Structure formats: structure tokens, C-alpha cells
Amino acid sequence: MKPSLERLIQSLSDGLIEREIPSRLILLSALAGEHTLLVGPPGTAKSVLARKLHNVFSGGDYFERLLTRFSVPEELFGPLSIKALEDDKYHRLTEHYLPSASTAFIDEIFKANSAILNSLLTILNEGEFDNGTTRVKVPLISVVAASNELPDETELEALYDRFLVRYQVQPVSNQQFETLLTLNTDSSAVMLNETDKLTPATIADIQQKAEQVSLSDEVIQLLGAMRDYLNQQNRYVSDRRWRKVVKLLKVSAYTNGQTQVSIWDCWLLQHCLWNSPEQREELANCYESHLGIGTGFYPQRLEKLIATWEHSLSTDRASEVQQVNASGHKLYLDTDQQQTTAKRSVEWLHRGNQALYLSPPGPEDRSNGNIGYTRHELLDDFFDSHYQQTHIDGRWQHIDEYIRQSENHLMLEQLNPACMEPAKHGSSFVDNRVQEALVILTDLTRQQDNLSEFLKSAKQEIVDHLWIDSSFKDSAVNNLEHSQKQIGKLIQRIGAVIEGYRGLPRL
Which value, in Å, is the radius of gyration of the alpha carbons in the chain? Predict the structure, then answer.
């Protein structure tokens, strides 16, 4: 089945540029019995994709219609039967209209008015059509709808919700513009074998067998995380939509040859859960941030944990105690950086190589603003220039006698800094720290092994995955390899913490 589906996907994207993703999405949506909404400007191959989708089915009718505000039910569901009206019966002639089609393209879907809305909802959701007094099953497999804009009317919300898969179609990029101009659409047409084409029976069989596919615990965890994220963003997703999402994931897994939905199938979520196109990238980022979490690797949490340990080690290394001498007295460093038991030191201040003095008693501030006086300044300002004397406490005092007295020296008293040394830690404290950090190291090593296995399986699983965009495959592998490097660095850091604690001085 898988090779056949790959050929069908190739036929959908053949002759189109940068349309690989919507080609896969509309086919998968059809296999799941769901409908696809393509949002984008005119001329971006939306209708072409729908017509190509019809070509992958064997038999069945195709219906296409452009809606306007003035569209009437007859345009979608067929005209009223005149003959039936003559018999007082209300009956539409539905052949060649939507109720008889297996695939359909409805352009400007949100131009649907109230006259056609209820019947359209019933066809899309229940696959049934009320023709007069009779409700009949329709052969509709899938509708591809298109719109240039999203609905802003409440009455259209239910219609919007009927389209499980949503994709914003952009014009061809600048990088591929030249290819667009020179594209020869006739030279590379893919001819499909009838054996590759799908039938209603084939689709029913796929959906039935897909029901047997289970959800892994990792997928259930991811779906819960996505729902929490959407709730935090105040974005409502109906229970019905979640059920349809699961159905789509199971069909994805089954057609890819799996017996269980894997984390990789959930790449599709970004195309099922947005309400406006700009939200798709947010959903993609949310999804990618959970890749590898099933291995137990939470980089943000682990980064905080290791940083906390590094801070604790730094604090323990920096812890100090005051030194004591042989008698148990605390030691300090004096102004000459010599050990002393004195808490304070008194220093005779100098200016250059000249000692400084206080002025003779009299001025309120004898220290001259703590800059003092040299002998020459004392002599000039306070002493007789001839006899070099001044009158102090009732007697004459010579300057030499004055400066010999220590109470006249300009002294600075200061606290001596404590003489510190690294604190020694109890062996039990150090051993407990080392053991706690070793538990983290063991857990990180286990996570590293799990991540390596996950990366190995990822390279095998996603490279050939039927429904995943090829550009994402490279991105996913790169992200996982980056996570591998992250966890390697974390292991080195916790290892350094362990060695740091082992090296702490002990009592």
C-alpha cells in the first residue's frame, strides 16, 4: 500500500511547485474521510489540487462550485424536480451536483449563506443529504474547500470546524520563481495505474483497520500538552475535533505501516489545530519542543537543576572561617599584613615621606579635615617663626617638643580584617553531596542513552514517513542532535560539580 500511496502523492504534486505538503495533506484527509481547507490568494493552485485529488480515485463524480453571497441551494444540491412538485413532493435532482459527488471543490466556502448552510453541514459531517422527506447517504469521500479569508461570522464557525485539515497556500517563493516561469507542465506528467487508484471500498478498509492502531503513551502525553497549551492561549478545540484528530493520526500510522501512532505522526497536528494561519508556526514550535521528551530529557528543567548545583558548589567553595592561633585566639591582619590578635590598628599618617600632625589646641577640627599638617605647615601656621614656640596650656612649647608627643600625631584607627581561611567541611556533608550529584549523573547518562536510541530510530522512521514534510525531517534530526550535544554538556557540568565537591577541604 505504501508504495502505491507514494505514487499517488507524486501525481498530486507533479507539475506544481512547493505544493508537496498540501498534496500529502489532502490525500491523507481523504483517506480519513475528512475535509481540507486551503486558505490563500487566487492563482495558487488550490482548485488544481482538488482536481488532481479526484484523479487518484477510481470512478465517482467530481463537483466544483464557486460560492457567492447570492448562491442558492440549487447551485450546490441540484434543481427541484418539477415532476415531483406536480405530485406535491419536494425533491431535488442531485445527479452531477454535490450530493452525488465522491470528491468536490468548493471555492469561497465561507460565502455560504443560511439558505445552504444546514444542508452543507449535514453532508460534510454526517455524509447525508435531506432530499425532501428522505435522508440519503451521499458517496462523498472528501471536500477540498478554498477561501481568500477566514470567517468572522458566528454562524460560520460550525462550517469552519468541519474542515479538519487546514493549510495556508502561499505564492511560489522567490527562490523557485524562475522554476515557475520555465515549468513545462506537459513534460513530466505522472501517469497513474488503475491499480494505484483508490476506491470507496479501499478507503473504508483503511479506516476500519486504522481503528485497530493504538496510541503510544508518548503521543497521549503530547496531545495533553498541546491541549493545555491551547487552553492557555484561550483557543477552543471541540471534543469532536480531538476525536477526528486521533482518527487522522491513526490513518497516518496505518498507511505508513505502523501498528501504533508515533510521535512523528503528530507532526500533522500543526495543520489541524490552528484557527488563524499565524498560529500554525506556534503549534509547530510547541510540537518540536516536545520531541525527545519521551526519553526523559527536559533541557530547560535540567539546565536550571545543574545551574543550582553549580551555584551551591561555588557557595561551599567560597565559605571561609576565621583563623585562630595556638591558644584559640582569633587572628586579624594589621596594616603591615601581619597576623595579630588585635581587632584594631592605629597608624601614624604620612603625606609622602613626611609625618602628619594635629594642630595645637584651639581649632575645632585639629585634623584639618583629616589631611593634617606637616612640621613645616605647623611652623608657618601656629608657631613663632623666630623662636619656633607657641603658647599651649599656659606655657611656651617648642615645636620639636610638640611633635615628639604622640597625642599630637595624626593617627588613623581602623578595624583589622579577619584573617580567613577556606572552611573545612564534614566528611558526611561532602559524601552526601557527591552521592546526590551522582544520582543526577546516572539519570543524565540514562537519558543520553535513551536519546541516542530515539535519534537512531528517528532517522529510520521519519526518513521514509509517508506524510511528513521532507524539510521537517532534516530539522527534526538536527534538533535531536542538538539535544544530544546539550545533554553531553550537562553531563560534563555535573561531573565537574562532583569533582568539585570531592576536592573540598575536609575536617
Answer: 42
Contact 98, 65 (CB under 8 A): yes
Q: How far apart are CA 365 and CA 430, in angstroms?
A: 56
Q: Which residue has the cell 558548589?
A: 313
Q: Running DSSP on this structure, what letter comes out for residue 399?
A: H
- Position 190 scores a pLDDT of 61
Whole-angstrom distance, CA of residue 299 vs CA of residue 490: 9
Rounded to 5 degrees, what are φ and ψ at 336?
A: -95, 15
Q: Is the overall model pTM greater than 0.85, yes or no?
A: no
**How many C-beta atoms surround the C-beta of residue 115 within 10 A?**
11
| Burial of 173: CB neighbours in 10 Å, binned 0-12, 13-18, 19+ | exposed
Q: Is 144 helix (H, G, I), strand (E, B) or coil?
A: strand
C-alpha distance across the termini of the chain, in Å: 72
As a whole number of angstroms, the distance between CA 408 and CA 401 comes to 10
- Of 167-181, 315-329, 411-425, 473-487, least confident by mean pLDDT is 473-487
Residues 71-90 have pLDDT tens digits of: 999 999 999 988 888 888 88
Closest by CA to 108, choosing from 75, 137, 151, is 151
- How do beta strands 103-107 and 62-66 pair? parallel
Q: For residue 297, give the 3-state DSSP assignment.
A: coil
Q: What is the DSSP letter of 339?
A: E
**Residue 266: partners with Cβ closer than 8 Å, 6 or more residues away:** 219, 222, 223, 249, 287
CA–CA distance, 494 with 310 (Å, rounded to integer): 8
Cell of 215: 496510541
CA dist., res. 277 & res. 180, Å (int): 24
Q: What are phi and psi of 116, to 5 degrees?
A: -115, -10
pLDDT above 90 for 484? no
Could you tell me if 163 and 244 are in contact, meaning their C-beta atoms sit under 8 angstroms apart? no
Q: Tens of pLDDT along 255-305?
A: 999 999 998 999 999 999 999 999 999 999 888 877 755 444 567 788 999
Which residues touch 396 (CB under 8 Å, ≥6 apart)?
A: 387, 389, 390
Nine-digit cell string for 33: 474521510
DSSP state of 133: T
Dihedrals phi, psi of 114, to nearest 5 degrees: -60, -25
Distance CA 456, CA 487 (A): 16
